[in-house]
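Whiteboard transcription, Tuesday session. T.W. wrote the structure tokens on the left side:
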């Protein structure tokens, strides 16, 4: 699925759904409420999406494709060191969250998806994709000697992703009061101090 597969109206509906979940919780995401939010009739909204579940699934797939496009461009910079690539990836990701903070509520709230197999599998696929990108960069760093092999690739990837996740959740819980990109950079810098070599 490509982001080009969505109409402008579908994107508007998905963005409105994200805002409603962020503001009121998943229980308040109904076709009726969503139609009111964007001044559409329920019948008109159903012409774009068959159900609330389809909206959620489309929203996740839209974000995954956008994420894949951004990260692929970053990974194509083969001249960058592993640590620089990791900074580029997380700067890009955190700036996306700052620009659209409501998306954090959707993709970081497992409780929204735990009773829906299709949605939970999509969230899991997104996490696995991100993990795969980070593992490739860590592997590159270990192979060129810029990252120590004292910690395994998968373990270091989990440490990096976990550190960034906590940083994002803290930012969300404090009402977006902190500088998310700056805080994320501090986390990465701390991890680099532990694992980077002088090479």
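and on the right, the sequence the group agreed on:
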């Amino acid at each position: 699925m490509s982001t080009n597969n969505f109409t402008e109206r579908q994107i508007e509906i998905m963005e409105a759904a994200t805002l409603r979940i962020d503001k009121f919780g998943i229980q308040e995401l109904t076709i009726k409420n969503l139609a009111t939010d964007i001044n559409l009739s329920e019948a008109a909204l159903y012409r774009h999406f068959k159900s609330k579940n389809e909206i959620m699934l489309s929203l996740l797939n839209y974000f995954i494709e956008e994420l894949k496009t951004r990260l692929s461009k970053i990974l194509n910079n083969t001249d960058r060191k592993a640590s620089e690539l990791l900074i580029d990836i997380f700067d890009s990701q955190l700036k996306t969250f700052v620009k659209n903070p409501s998306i954090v509520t959707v993709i970081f709230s497992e409780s929204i998806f735990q009773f829906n197999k299709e949605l939970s599998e999509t969230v899991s696929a997104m996490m696995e994709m991100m993990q795969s990108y980070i593992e490739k960069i860590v592997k590159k760093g270990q192979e060129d000697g810029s990252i120590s092999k004292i910690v395994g690739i998968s373990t270091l990837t989990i440490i990096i992703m976990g550190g960034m996740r906590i940083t994002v959740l803290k930012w969300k819980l404090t009402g977006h009061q902190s500088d998310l990109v700056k805080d994320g950079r501090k986390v990465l810098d701390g991890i680099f101090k532990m694992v980077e070599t002088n090479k």
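Someone added at the bottom: The chain has a mean pLDDT of 89.
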